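Technical annex B. To support the medicinal chemistry partners, we prepared a structural model of the target in complex with uridine-5'-diphosphate, based solely on the information shown next.
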Amino acid sequence: MTKKTFLVTGGAGFIGSNLVDALLLANHRVVVLDDLSVGKRANFAHHISNPDFEFIQGSVLDMSVVDRLVAAVDGVYHLAAVVGVTYVVQNPLHGILVNSKGTENVFAAAHKYRRKVLFASTSEIFGKSTQVPFKETDNSVFGPTSVPRWAYALAKALDEQLAFAYYRQEGLPVTVIRYFNAYGPRLDPRGYGSVIARFITQALAGQPLTVYGDGQQTRSFTFVKDSVRGTMAAMDFCRGEGMAFNIGNPEEVTIATLAHHIQQLVNPDLEIVHIPYEQAYGKNFEETRRRLPDVSRAAEILDFRATVPLIEGLQWTISWFKDNC
Ligand code: UDP
């Protein structure tokens, strides 16, 4: 494979830093742009002396930095975003601005210099749709704009529209991927946007695992090494340009079962408690009851399938939390 230089926005974050590892392993050069608001230096500290790695602390909201960096690379993995339902509910303004204006900057620079962009979107885009499994072409179903939760999905939906508009109108080579609940090493132990991080942190501290609501809501958790493989496949395959792809594992699990798995893997004596949604997220919260990807498009066009089973991925993740948190 020819050596290329990639810009990874958000490369100090959870998925971003795992992607950086894989790109360097594949013998590419990597420039990371991250404002370190959620990302951490520890996530890339092991690359600091690698001549193929460069870190720039800055924001995608800073157009001059984005312009300079995009000009100097072959392609852009745009992962920088404000993520996590809890964080976005508490900080809606920051979430909306970074996720809309920041992406607008990246696309504008990529258009100016004719660079391929891989845009990291989210399965949250399907909202509270009940038509599972979710196909890329299915409807997004959001609640009223008075419900802060949907701000994240709406900003990402606008970003996707912008990506497709640039593709159709200007011929920008851009591919959109939608992550389905990625988890694994380097998840933020504060649990922003990840029930798995929360449960493992609680379990290792000997605290009860807090299942919200009846625990019968489902998610399809994807081990980060799978998410990263799907991400790189989407950059590599030109056939995916102008399209969105679900990057997920079709193994669906209820949150109650997830809590049980983590309890059994860490300490079977741990308590599991149920907490009302209102207590967890405040009033005016809406939930996605089932989230399950249809993975056929990614399999057919990108030749991508997730391979790591949940239990195995949880074992890796728990062991990383034990060593690093
Ligand atoms: N959840 C939970 N206990 C927690 C945190 C989250 O039961 O301590 C639930 C949450 O209500 C949702 C699911 O776990 O149904 C996944 O939540 P997460 O924040 O990981 O992301 P989401 O998929 O909702 O974006």
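Notes passed to the chemistry partners:
The pocket of uridine-5'-diphosphate is lined by residues 85, 124, 181, 193-195, 198, 210-212, 217, 219, 255, 287 (CB under 6 Å).
Residues 5-183+221-249+292-308 form a domain with the Rossmann fold fold (CATH 3.40.50.720).
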